[in-house]
Amino acid sequence: MATRKPAKAGASKGKAAASQASKGKTAQKTRDAKSKKEGALLRRNCGTMAVHMMLLEKYPAFRARQFQLEQDTALRRAKAIDVKKLKVATVRIVVNVLYHTPEQNITLGQIRSQIAALNKDFGATNSDKAKTPVPWRGLVTDSRIRFKLFKVQRKRTTKASFGQDDGVKKAAAGGLPPLGAEKYLNLWSCALGGGLLGYAQFPGGPAATDGVVINYRAFGTRGTAQAPFDKGRTATHEIGHFFNLRHIWGDTEDCSGSDFVADTPNCAGPNYGKPGFPHVTCNNGPNGDMYVNYMDYTDDASMFMFTTQQVIRMRSALEGPRKKLMT
Ligand SMILES: [Zn+2]
Q1: Per-domain residue ranges for the chain?
Q2: CATH number of the domain at 48-249+307-325, please?
Q3: Cα(247) to centroid of ligand 1, in Å?
Q4: pLDDT for 80
Q5: From the CA of 85, how far away is ligand 1's center (Å)?
Q6: 134 CA distance to ligand 1 centroid (A)?
Q7: What predicted TM-score, i.e. pTM, was given to this entire model?
Q8: Cβ-based neighbour number of residue 308 at 10 Å
């Protein structure tokens, strides 16, 4: 059908097509200008560690609570927990939508698409897990954490975009404060500057800023979500941090860092895009970096799994400092 249309087009249709093409060009220009301003989403960029370092400086008690949680996690790991017997916990989500343009006021359908993606990823029922390289298939683990949409709050903001300074969580800075941050997992959807996809707060931090911020162009699986971040996995990654998971390369630029998880191989740094198997660094051959892990920096279409030890780490946070989220 599409190939026959141009042959049939008369003079007026030709004009319409030209006008359509010019409109298309204008739209493309607008998108380019917007990308330049907000920062193009070419590769994953998560602000969690930078935010974490700032918060630790500001709130010394946060460091102590993180240390305590690390001790508790080690004890739990030593108990050889059967992850298949973990209680299924449903976490209620509040979505705070901050919009400067009508496009940023994402639809309820788009919000629901994000919750659906989270339930698949955290339940290990995501269909693309079959693409996990064979050596790691046995490690793909259901966290037995599920998510339910509780409330959506919307606010028009004068801010063209937000940064990683938690302004999106403060009314005075054009944002919205979290609703019941101890009982609900608060997500913020907004325009983020500098090519930032999102950031999260680790357990034990201040309640006024607790939750996860996600770029509206990487939120959910439809609407404003744009490839290669249109499978909802920015939220999966950031909620991993919210439950105390670290990046799998341990946030150092050499092989010295650790994510405090034994079944993710030690690796040198983040993997971007869609890597091929194997990508060997830090003497981690023959299988190499676990770039298919949600806690790497690969594209949404290249990440499929949490490991058993990551699940145990998340559950230590959920059943410890985040236990009020459990229903
Ligand atoms: Zn991250």
Answers
A1: 48-249+307-325
A2: 3.40.390.10
A3: 6
A4: 82
A5: 28
A6: 25
A7: 0.89
A8: 19
Helices vs. strands in the chain: H and E counts, helices first: 7, 7
Q: What is the pLDDT of residues 272-281, one digit of tens each?
A: 999 999 999 9
Alpha-helix runs per DSSP H in the chain: 5-8, 11-38, 48-58, 60-78, 108-122, 233-242, 308-319
- Could you read off the pLDDT tens digit of each residue along the chain, which spans 327 residues? 333 333 333 334 344 444 444 545 555 555 455 555 667 788 999 999 999 999 999 999 999 999 999 999 999 999 988 999 999 999 999 999 999 999 999 999 999 999 999 999 999 999 999 999 999 999 999 999 999 999 999 999 999 999 999 999 999 999 999 999 999 999 999 999 999 999 999 999 999 999 999 999 999 999 999 999 999 999 999 999 999 999 999 999 899 999 999 999 999 999 999 999 999 999 999 999 999 999 999 999 999 999 999 999 999 999 999 999 998
Q: Which of 83, 233, 231 is nearest to 143 (CA)?
A: 83
CA angle, residues 178, 224, 23, in degrees to nearest 5: 140
Active site amino acids = 238
CA angle at 253 for the pair 313 and 63, rounded to the nearest 5°: 45
User: Residue 248 C-alpha to ligand 1 middle, in angstroms?
Assistant: 9
Would you give the DSSP letter of residue 247?
Answer: P
102-117 CB burial, b ≥16 within 10 A, e <16: eebbbeeebbbbbbeb
Q: Report the candidate in 41, 42, 44 with the shortest Cα–Cα distance to residue 248.
A: 44
What residues contact 133, with CB distance under 8 A and at least 6 apart? 277, 278, 287, 292
Q: How far is CA 40 from CA 51, 226, 272, in A?
A: 21, 11, 15
Residue 3 alpha carbon to ligand 1 centre in Å: 45
